[in-house]
Specification:
It is built from eleven helices and nine strands. It is an alpha/beta fold. Helix 3 packs parallel to helix 7, helix 6 crosses helix 7 and helix 7 packs antiparallel against helix 8. The longest helix is centred in the N-terminal third of the chain and has 16 residues. The protein is globular.
Length: 302
């Protein structure tokens, strides 16, 4: 499979440590490596470097090159300005189609700044999703089994089982839910039907392009224009031209919430999007008094 690492970001969540030039994914918030490097380490045993595409922004493109020296330079692509996740995914599809001409390539989409300690479970689930997507016209989203009533995540409600293979099931998606209040989050957790929306996806290029054409036709047309310029001297200019005409659109809002072939695979492993200093405190090692603030402060002041 191909893997797209979405590594944009403007450095607003982890002030005072993060900056536009060094946003969250480039920082070693948890451990000795950056979030981006930890994400790369999780996937490198199951995919070749030349099949990893990193889409970032122009402010940190050089930092990404430095932190991921094994990724071919042409696979680290800078957006001229942020337009949310749908354009990022559309751009990656253009690159894959230009280089392979094969719409049946399987494509995983992963944020570059999440914490997933249970690496083997992650790889097994990702491989299962890739195998399933390669044989079905479906858009797979990875739903994380919730362990507490989190109000900072979106949720996915699963419906009937579409297919069960060995010990893993693929569910039809019933609905997507925005970040709930605490009472609603408790109801979601107790129902057993809701999963955290991780923002991780798997599909074939053909399947996602088809849904772009149905639900975001103007965007699909723009990115088809980019395909012929990939790896040419005109590529950056063409991307700039296209992005200057695009509306900011998330893949959830633009495609996943309206497509009729969306499925979810339950990711039963520890996961955290590390979206704030509060989240860092929650996952930090605590002393005998339950105090983990010192570590967070040290990182903030480093």
């Amino acid at each position: 499979m191909y893997i797209l690492l979405m590594a944009g970001g403007v450095g607003s969540r982890f002030w005072p440590r993060s900056r536009t030039s060094m946003p969250k994914q480039t920082l070693n918030i948890i451990g000795e490596k950056s979030m981006l490097q930890m994400t790369y380490d999780r996937i490198k045993p199951i995919v070749d470097d030349d099949k990893i595409i990193v889409i970032t922004n122009k402010e940190i493109a050089d930092v990404v090159h430095q932190q991921l020296p094994n990724i071919p330079g042409q696979n680290i692509i800078a957006e001229p300005f942020g337009r949310n996740t749908a354009p990022c995914i559309g751009l990656a599809c253009s690159v894959i189609m230009s280089r392979t001409g094969n719409a049946r390539e399987t494509m995983a989409v992963l944020p570059a700044d999440h914490l997933i300690p249970e690496v083997k479970k992650f790889r097994d689930t990702l491989q299962f999703a890739s195998d399933y997507a390669s044989n079905h016209d479906t858009l797979i989203t990875m739903g994380v089994t919730p362990t507490y009533p989190e109000t900072g995540y979106g949720y996915i409600q699963k419906a009937d089982v579409i297919e069960e293979i060995n010990d893993k099931a693929v569910f039809k998606v019933k609905t997507f839910a925005e970040k709930p209040n605490l009472e609603t989050a408790k109801l979601f957790l107790n129902s057993g039907d809701f999963l955290w929306n991780s923002g991780m996806f798997v599909w074939t290029v053909e399947s996602i392009i088809k849904q772009f054409r149905l639900h975001l036709p103007e965007m699909a047309e723009f990115f088809e224009q980019i395909t012929d310029s990939v790896d040419s001297e005109e590529m950056d200019e063409k991307i700039y031209d296209v992005y200057s005409r695009l509306k900011s659109t998330s893949i959830d809002y633009g495609v996943m919430e309206v497509a009729d072939n969306v499925s979810v695979i339950e990711a039963n492993y520890e996961w955290n999007d590390v979206g704030s200093w509060e989240a860092v405190f929650k996952i930090s090692e605590k002393d005998e008094n339950g105090n983990g603030l010192t570590a967070a402060l040290n990182m903030a002041l480093d």
